[in-house]
Amino acid sequence: MLNSQELNFEQIKGQAEEWTREAGQYIKKMMESSFSISTKAHQHDLVTDVDKNVEKFFLDKVAETYPTHRLMGEEGSFELINDLEGIVWILDPIDGTVNFVHQESNFAISIGIYLEGEPIIGIVFDVMGDELFSSIKGQGAMVNGQRLPKLARNSLNEAILSFNAGWMLKDRRLEKLVESSRGVRSYGVAALEMAYVACGRLDAYISFNLAPWDIAGGFALLQEVGGTATNYNGDPLNFLEKDTLIAANPGVYDEVIEVIHGEK
Ligand code: 2AM
Ligand code: CA
């Protein structure tokens, strides 16, 4: 049973933001020293001691402060989570690890706090850019304390899209999107790209392989500004398995689906 402290979402959001900034300071400090880097399944998939330590930091903090909450993190703790009952913190300790290692910028800490599988709180923190995106259900989304306006419907011919170049090799229909849009950018950090859709810097972000922790924080932000996010087929997102993603401005989303799947 969740007690009132464990359901006080404003307090939880404040706490999560504080821990996120603290973790950001830790990451910056670690960047000045040396840390060990290893590859996971293949060469695109890196993990460092820093990712693992940040996850451990959140695991300890959440267990100590909110004992009934559970945490599903990329670096191992996800293995214990098979359902989204109650409150689950879905954490990517460093989203954009390849950027973290190679560029020392363009990476984020991402947290989605979900109640019975629905997003309640979203946090996406661009550590080097010092931009903290956050949201709480029904109260809108903010960036560094400034409210983000609801998204007005944009059209594809004025849209900036974002996806990794490699996805075009998998689905040539993306070429049509490139031709029909104003431009394409690629940041390599899903959580931040979703946050950029939420604040209008991007109009659509597409990926063919994302995990729940890559998208949980960004989806919470998008819900609060009227953005749309589904998998590539247009089905609702699930936060227990890897899937494809289209996260977009609502007007652009409809046009993207039309280009990919034909008129519905
Ligand atoms: P990561 O850096 O946390 O691994 C890069 O295009 C984006 O896709 C990043 O958000 C990255 O998250 C994510 N990503 C890269 N490889 C992935 C994989 N094998 N499964 C899920 N997400 C992945
Ligand atoms: Ca990660």
Give a structural overview.
The chain has a 7-stranded mixed β-sheet, sandwiched between helices. It has a 5-stranded mixed β-sheet with strand order 11-10-12-14-13, sandwiched between helices. A two-stranded antiparallel sheet has the order 1-2. The longest helix has 24 residues, at 9-32. It is α+β, with helices and mostly antiparallel strands. The model has no long low-confidence stretch (mean pLDDT 93). The protein has helices at residues 9-32, 49-65, 97-102, 166-170, 173-180, 190-198, 212-225, 250-261; strands at residues 37-39, 46-48, 70-73, 87-95, 108-115, 118-126, 131-136, 141-143, 146-147, 160-162, 183-185, 204-210, 228-230, 243-248. The structure holds adenosine-2'-monophosphate and calcium ion. Calcium ion binds next to β4.
Q: What is the count of helical runs?
A: 8
User: Could you tell me the radius of gyration in angstroms?
Assistant: 18 Å
Strand proportion? 25-35%
Coarse shape = globular
Mean pLDDT: 93
What's the β-strand tally? Answer: 14
Main pleated-sheet profile: 7 strands, mixed
* Ligand catalogue: adenosine-2'-monophosphate, calcium ion
Portion in helices: 25-40%
Low-confidence stretches: none
